[in-house]
Amino acid sequence: MATSCEKMKKIQGHPCFGGNHHKNGRMHLAVAPKCNIKCGYCTRRHDCANESRPGVTSRLLSPEEAIVRVREVMASPVTGPIIKVIGIAGPGDPLFNEETFETFRLVDREFPDLIKCMSTNGLLLPDKMPVLKALGLHSLTVTLNTLDPEIGGRIYSYVHYRGTTYSGKEAGEILVHNQLEGIRQAAELGMTIKINTVLIPGVNDSQIPLISKQVKELGAFVMNIMPLIPQADFAHIEPPSAERLDALRSDNEKTIGQFKHCKQCRADAVGLIGENLQLAVATAD
Question: Which of 250, 262, 191, 254 is nearest to 220 (CA)?
Answer without folding.
Answer: 191
